[in-house]
Amino acid sequence: MLEIKNVSLKHKDKELLKDISLSLQAGKIYGLLGPNGAGKTTLFKSILNITKYTGSITCDGKEIDLKNVGSLIEYPAFYENLTIEENLKLHAQYLKIEKVDICKSLNQVDLWKYKDKKISQLSLGMKQRLGIARAFLNNGKYLLLDEPTNGLDPIGIKDFRLLLKNELSTKHNIIIISSHNLNEIVAIVDVLIFIKDGKIIEFTDNKYNDEKELEQLYEKLMGDDKEKYDD
Fold it and tell me: pTM for the complete prediction?
């Protein structure tokens, strides 16, 4: 269980997160939806202990061990003059992952055949796929994916959805996806979390059959902010 209790974060005079409390269960995929500046990425960074917040965030009652967390936050950054494989090896060393299957990680996103390409030679879509592979490298119990389909073409989005649902989602892990693509959220997640102005305003099972139903709920909850999505 990922337990977020009374988490708040203030930067200068602005409250970015306001007394957020969530209990997330293993075996489910959660979708985090909200307008531009709502606090989605800030919440992810707080879980990763990148930001200074008040309150507590624990995993199974203990302090978060980042070895158990895979993440893709904003656009992924890599060492441009190193190859795809070299970047993943460095990341594994940084996380002190002793047993890592780079071939499997790259095959999952169809990049193994490009393993010797330098990052500077990759397209935006390829970098995004590499970011996804890096997030899954440690087979983490917790996966935080911030706009994971950015830069992917329709086939890449479909492949990612199948990868997530068929291989990466298990009864033992928790996956949280931040996205503005309502159609993808409907197709992937089990639970919807709506955030606005740094506050959780709705937490509900995903019972929606199509994007139109979800759009209607989003419009109802977000009001004037309905047209603003990703932060």
Answer: 0.85
